[in-house]
Amino acid sequence: MTMTRRSSLASALLLVACGPKSQVEPAPIEEPAASIPSIVIEEPTVGPSYSRDLVRRVVRTHFDEIEACLATQSDPKLAGKVVIAWTIELDGKPSKARVTETTVGDEVAGCIRDAITTWEFPKPTHGALEITYPFVLSQD
Fold it and tell me: Deepest of 3, 73, 118, 121, by most Cβ within 10 A of its Cβ?
């Protein structure tokens, strides 16, 4: 086979395999992922017979849930404060969770509030008690 025939045959095979105007599609440009704000724990308000450290410990074990709430936001500069209040019942389960303050919007605040309602706290020994917990979200 001559060089010209090989070249024609290769061109014909490419035409059949790729179509008359084969073009490589450029890869899509991905937007940089929004950074998740760091969560700063301020001093929670708890009843006199309950330890702030116990509350902080439970909250810290659930940071992944709070971060999941923050990750749903498209704002790369999300920062602010969410204050949630709830009651720890005698069985250690939270009830009556509500947002008392937010500067980051209802969606994030509501997500954090809903997450808290699934947690479990050490059982209070002197009756149900109120917790008020500020979450400060900052972009470092």
Answer: 121
H-run or E-run covering 71: helix 63-71
- The encoded tokens of residue 112 equal 């954090």
> Residue by residue, what is the 3-state secondary structure of 19-70?
CCCCCCCCCCCCCCCCCCCEEEECCCECCCCCCHHHHHHHHHHCHHHHHHHH
Higher pLDDT, 11 or 75: 75
pLDDT digits 0-9 by tens, 19-61: 555 455 555 555 445 567 777 767 888 887 888 999 999 999 9
Question: In angstroms, rounded to a whole number, what is the distance separating the alpha carbons of residues 84 and 102?
Answer: 9
Handedness of CA 47, 52, 58, 63 (dihedral sign): positive
Across 98-117, average pLDDT: 95
Distance between CA atoms of 26 and 33, rounded to whole angstroms?
A: 20
What span, in angstroms and rounded, lies between the C-alpha atoms of 105 and 116? 17
9, burial (CB in 10 Å: exposed 0-12, middle 13-18, buried 19+)? exposed
Q: Which amino acid is at 89?
A: E
What is the pTM assigned to this prediction?
0.71
